[in-house]
Amino acid sequence: MTQHVILAYGQETELWRATFAVLSFYAWYEGNRADVHTVVFTDKPEFFAPHFDGLPVDYGLLTPTGLAEMRGPHQYIHRVKPAVIQRVFGEYPGDNLLFCDSDTFFIAPADALLRSVRADVSVMHLREFNFEEAVHVYAGFTPANQDRYPRRFIELIEKRTFPVGGVERKFEKTHFIWNSGVLGLSHEVGRLMPEIGALNDAFYAGSGWITSEQIAFSLALPFTTSLIASSQYVLHYWGQQQKTLMDGLLSRLTNPNFQALPHSEKLAEVKRLTRVWRRTVQLSQVREGALYAFSKGELKAGVKCAAKAFFASPFDADFAKKLLTVFRQKLTSSV
Length: 335
Hints:
Helix content: 40-55%
Strand order of the largest sheet: 3-2-1-4-9-6-10
Largest sheet: 7 strands, mixed
Number of domains: 2
Shape: globular
Oligomer: single chain
């Protein structure tokens, strides 16, 4: 069996994102439902219950005290994820696990992704960049001096080794960071969770880098498994602009007509929405990428993203105006 795990607590927008994430999983799942089980870790299980009628969903209650313990001595917010994953492996020791962030939704058959998870194969969302590249990427972020975090991290891993699989490992600055919005882990890999948790703590204590949690998975998993991407199955709208966009779209779920749909029709409608909203979110991402690239003087990347945006939506006057504004700002600053 596979334990499908979602973590969602706090603001109501987070709860609606998680609702759609779970519904999209079952909308795209074509296998035997006896082979899957969803656990939603939340501080408000009563919010979700009306939306998941007929689905194999249970809840892990998160209390303020429990969350504080999971965040650890540094109160690192993303420490909750590996803590929850370790708890699930402890409660279901023979099962595989698929963790999805609340700001995700499925866009392809979920069972096909589940079959990818084996003792020698783990899943993350997608590969991003290595630590050397991260220095340059973070140098362009606002506020300034964000590159201090990858610099501190490189200094940390150059000084010492770390235990993974019972062996002291040396990490390199050429190793890659993977996005952990999706994590597919076999029960065999679940035995690494105490070490991954320890890596997370050491990385955050030594660098202060907010991405320490995903770095811990990114570095530990390749020593015992092959890593594959899940981006062809799951859309992860982690950018703030895309989250705001999706929060507006998700208001559709509050419509009484949607809520009154029979179970099968509701999942069919969710599946349809994933197709429509996928295009909407991806268009937003390439537009944002074009504007960012041009603002940084990265002409080739900007042209590539802008071309994709105009191909998808050729008559978008607002986007064209924003591009002109960026060009004028760059020209003014270069004079």
